[in-house]
Amino acid sequence: MKTALTYDDVLLVPRYSDIESRSEIVLDSDLDNRRTLTLPIISSPMDTVTGDVMASTMALSGGLGIIHRYNTPDEQATILAISKRIANTIRGKDANLVGAAIGVSGDYLDRARKLVKAGADIICIDIAHGHHILMQKAIRDVRTVVGTGIHIMAGNVATKEGYEDLSRWGADSVRCNVGGGSICSTRIQAGSGYPGLQTLFDCSSSDFSGRVPIIADGGIRNSGDIVKALAAGADFVMLGSLLSGTEETPSDTIEVGGETRKVYRGMASREAQLAWRGKTSSLEGVATTVAHKGSVEHTLSDLERGIRSGLSYSGARTIEDFQTVAEFVRQTRAGTVESGTHIMRVL
Ligand code: XMP
Predict the structure, then answer these.
(1) How remote is the CA of residue 47 from the centroid of ligand 1, in Å?
(2) What is the pLDDT of residues 117-135, one digit of tens each?
(3) Of 12, 29, 128, 170, which residue is least crowded by CB atoms under 10 Å?
(4) How far are the Cα atoms of 25, 35, 111, 330 from residue 28, in angstroms, in the given order?
(5) Ligand 1 centroid to 94 CA: how many Å?
(6) Whether the CB of 268 sits within 6 Å of ligand 1
């Protein structure tokens, strides 16, 4: 039986570096030959993560937001148009990419049409088990509706075979990882999944890697995990929990025991399913509240600093260089403990 590794199982070996300032590091990553992000971070299409304010803030920060699909096609198209307008008008920056999610059944083609009309640059075909015949059909049909100028992101997949099939079927980028997200219970309910970092190692060994961007999605808890994901071959990371609780999420602010908090929930949680379709089927996610974190711009700045630091420890000035020179080492359980802060008493 194969051993599959994930984030805490490994570390990156520090290497000789001639980088004198982290500002020498460039974090550009190409989504396709017409679209480049200057920060390789994408916000997840979840109803407690990405609405109009998050999507426009992500665009202005050099990343990308994918607007969630848990509303009507008209509502989603309106949210998209608003975020596009904000991204186009604030600060005069040339960073206005906005994406939106659709499913693979029901109104998905109508949604795709309306979203593109409202200005979507990226359509994300968003299902839990993306290595599926319905995904193959959806990519074909969505391409017919949106044409070749729109980027089609698709997922999620856990394996190299899944990544290669979605690439062959016409996806322009693929979300990789099944069941590893902080609010996921798929692996508990269904016993199915694949450790997240191993998915990246496997997918990046494919001939499609370098042509069809790999998006590491789910289970990323800090900038160190982002650095490991990029080193393992991801072109981008998609974040839910790390961005949850920020001011820009479309989630209500609530008071719990005198503390200000915001809801963060899996889209297959009971709470989310009841909210968007009034009933539940298989429950493969949980709902929680997280502390209000302030503006997402601060979170993104902290993450960006951590990523730059990670590349500098390997002596790499670009993500591409980093993927060439990065060397992983597997750590023992004692190593994992040593890698966390472990002073006996923290004041
Ligand atoms: P993080 O770890 O960033 O993960 O919070 C976010 C990713 O988790 C996925 N997602 C789910 N997976 N049940 C699942 O098994 C769910 O209810 C659920 N909701 C979101 C999704 O890929 C997201 O980007």
Answers:
(1) 11
(2) 999 999 999 999 999 999 9
(3) 170
(4) 9, 10, 30, 28
(5) 30
(6) yes
CA of residue 319 to ligand 1 center, whole Å: 25
pTM of the model: 0.97
pLDDT over threshold 80, residue 94: no
Distance from C-alpha of 135 to C-alpha of 154, rounded to nearest angstrom: 8
Distance CA 285, CA 132 (A): 20
Q: Give SS3 for 270.
A: helix
The pLDDT assigned to 90 comes to 76
Q: Which of 48, 197, 244, 267 to mutate to test the pocket of ligand 1 (most atoms within 8 A of CB)?
A: 267
From the CA of 267, how far away is ligand 1's center (Å)? 7
Question: What are the residue numbers of the active site?
Answer: 184
**Site of tokens 């990323």:** 220
DSSP code per residue over 17-75: -----GGG-B--EEEETTEEESS-EEE---TTT-SHHHHHHHHHTTSEEEE--SS-HHH
Q: Which atom of ligand 1 is nearest to the CA of 185?
A: 15
53 lines ligand 1 (CB under 6 A): no
Segment 251-270 shows an average pLDDT of: 94
CA distance 169 to 162: 10
Ligand 1 in reach of 245 Cβ (< 6 A): no
- pLDDT surpasses 90 at 45: yes
CB 183 less than 6 A from any atom of ligand 1: yes
The tokens for 74 are 């008209």
How far is 169 from 256, CA to CA, in rounded Å? Answer: 47
Going from the C-alpha of 130 to that of each of 146, 178, 200, the distances in angstroms are 20, 9, 16
Structure confidence at residue 87 (pLDDT): 87
With CA atoms as reference, report the closest residue to 174 among 186, 157, 151, 160. Answer: 157
d(CA 58, CA 39) in angstroms, rounded, equals: 9
- 336 half-sphere exposure, CB direction, 13 A CA radius: 9
